[in-house]
Amino acid sequence: MAARPAISNDRTASRTCRAAALGLGLWATTGLAPAHADTVCPGNPNALGTSRTLVVDPMEHPRIGTMQYRETLPLKDHEVVLTFDDGPLPPHSTQVLQILASECVKATFFIIGRMAHQFPEGVRRVRAAGHTIATHSENHPLHFEKMSPERIRQEIDDGIKHTAEALGDPSAVAPFFRVPGLRRGQVMEDYLVSKGIQSWSADFPADDWLRISSDQVYSRAIARIEAKGRGILLLHDIQARTVAALPRILQTLKARGYRIVHVVPATPDRPKTPTEPREWYIHPPAASVAMAHWPRVPKFLFVSTETLPGPALSDSDLHGGKLDDLDRRRTTIGPLQTASPFHATLNAANNQLALPVPSQSIFARPEKAVAVSFGVSPIVMPVSHHPAVASRPRGAPRAVRADNGPRLIPGSQPIAQPNLAPSAILQR
């Protein structure tokens, strides 16, 4: 009787394994990731696992990682992408692969071309374990942004070439690249875009390339992941301290509810994962915030503080406070108005011009005062006291003619106030 539960459990486990195998088979043929790939991990039922696979189009978002760029991978809260640089280098790279396999975790490895040429079997182990293989230059120079364009292109191309040769298949190399030391530059980024390669930075490092203990690597990795809540973790598979810290990092992520996401490039047979633009930011503003949808305001750099002189009073037609007519006949229209609605006057001292400040009534619309709902009331235009047009000298200001009868604004209809007085603006 005691053996029956064990047999039942074995049968249940067998069914679970067959279902998992079927699901993984469907995943491989359709390119769609299972919802929870971490439910089955041989030899470790409590493994962290890989929760899903994210398929990205390298050219749709060519630069990712908030350590240097505005965008990062479209991860959900408590999702982490593991990345390893500088390998392969036995035995540390091999040990990292074993630790990841024990937790059924998939990661992205940024391979150095020279290391791939020297240890091709190490690159093949990474592929056999199902990880993504990216590149990290040929020789790992730490002055990438200062190199000539020819040297930059050579470092990128040779790194891809030797990694592909180690695998025997150029298509097995993902179009992902991380610059050594994160020494980004415009020449490098433009060249990667021209080749259809995505430039990867990271969202948080663990500082495992520094001379610190494995405990410090662990504590820095966890603290920075917790601070952002999701993102790309930068590690190095050639360091003994990373090998020592990695099991604790994975266990802590599991205990705190984090999930691992595997990233692969889109192909004709593997469409990209549908995402929204705002998902490519660590902390996107809420959709209800209008400013989130406005373009950024550019910052202007003023290279000169020189100012242009204001026009001198003698440059105008103003003489003795009166305005001359246009043909210089000295036929004056009248003194310059300085009373309300103007609250400032021209200051002729030192030839400095002070512009008049208009009052609010200057901007009043006469039709607004009489409009009710539909149409505008008649407006009586005053009779001008200027000379008739026939006696107006050539070039003199045009006199205003108006009949004594009411005048309607074209297109309007009279309403219930036909004798409303015109506004003060028209009476001036």
Protein architecture, described:
Helix 2 links the parallel strand 3 (79-85) and strand 4. The model is unreliable at 1-38, 289-294, 342-346, 370-381, 383-391, 399-403 and 407-428 (pLDDT under 50). With 428 residues, this protein is of the alpha/beta class. It is globular and about 90 Å long. The strands form 3 sheets. Strands 1, 3, 4, 5, 8, 9 and 10 form a 7-stranded parallel sheet that branches. Strands 2-7-6 form a 3-stranded parallel sheet. Helix 7 (214-228) crosses helix 8. The protein has a domain at 33-285: TIM Barrel, CATH 3.20.20. It has helices at 3-30, 92-102, 113-118, 120-128, 149-167, 186-194, 214-228, 240-255, 366-370, 424-427; strands spanning 50-56, 63-64, 79-85, 108-111, 132-135, 176-177, 198-200, 204-205, 231-236, 259-265, 318-319, 322-323. The protein is 29% helix and 11% strand.
